[in-house]
Amino acid sequence: MLKSTRRSVAVLILVAILSAFPSAQQAPPKEAGTFRQPDLIEIIGRDLTIRLDIRYATKNNFTGRPVYKQARAFLQRPAAEALERVNNALRKQGYGLMVFDGYRPWRVTKVFWDSTPEALRQFVADPSKGSRHNRGCAVDLTMFALESGRQVRMPSEYDEMTERSHINYQCATPEARRLRDMLRAAMEAEGFQVYEPEWWHYDYKDWRQYPILDISFKEIKR
C-alpha cells in the first residue's frame, strides 16, 4: 500500500512539473495557413566566396557542445540569392560575409531554449512559436576583411548575451560601430531586417511565407 501511494505521489509531481514548463513540447507548433514550398539551398553553393564559421557544429558555442552534426548553412532560395548580392556589394568595399548559422531545425531551437536561463531568453527563440531560423529565412553573420582574411571586430562577440550585442549599442569603438552599420546597410538594401538585440541576426523579408521545419541537414537535397 505504501509503495502504491508513493508511486501515485510521484506521478502527480511529474504531471505538475510537466504542466508548469511549456518547453516540455516535443514537436514543432502546428500552423494554419498556406505556405510556400520550402526550397532550402546551401549558402556556399550560391557563392563560394562567402565563408562559414558554423560554431554550432563545434564546442565553441554558448551550449558548450556540438548541436549540429555537419558544418553547413542553408537558406530558402530567395534569401540565399539576396545574401549573394549583399556579399557582392560588400566586396566592393573590401569585405566579405562570414556566416555563423542559417536554417536551424526546430529541435535545435528547443535545445537552445532549454539551455538558456529565463533572464536571457531574448537571445533565443521560443520553441512554442518557432524561429525564423526554422523557416530558413534567418541568418547569423559577420564580415571579414578581404586584404587580411581576418574576421572583423564587432561591438561584441557572436552569441554574446549582453547589452553590447544590441544593434544600437553606442559604447563600442568607432571602428566597430562603422563595421556593424556597414553590414546593416548592406543587408537592409537586399530585404533583410536586423533583430535588434543581436547585431549578427537578420531576417529575410518573406519569412512569414515559409513553414517551420524540423528536418536535419542530411535530409536536404544537395
Features:
5 helices; alpha+beta; 222 residues; disordered N terminus; Muramoyl-pentapeptide Carboxypeptidase, domain 2; two-stranded antiparallel ribbon; 5-stranded mixed β-sheet
The CATH class name reads Alpha Beta
Number of domains: 1
How much beta, percentage-wise?
A: 15-25%
Q: Class by helix and strand content?
A: alpha+beta
Tell me about the largest β-sheet.
Answer: 5 strands, mixed
What is the CATH third-level topology name? Muramoyl-pentapeptide Carboxypeptidase, domain 2
Mean residue pLDDT: 90
Widest sheet, order of strands: 2-4-5-7-6
**DSSP summary, beta strand count:** 7
Question: In whole angstroms, how far apart are the ends?
Answer: 60 Å
Question: What's the total helix number?
Answer: 5
Order of helices and strands: HEHEEHEHEHEE
The unreliable regions are 1-23
What is Rg? 20 Å
Shape: globular
Q: If classified by CATH, what would the architecture be?
A: 2-Layer Sandwich
Please estimate the helix content.
Answer: 25-40%
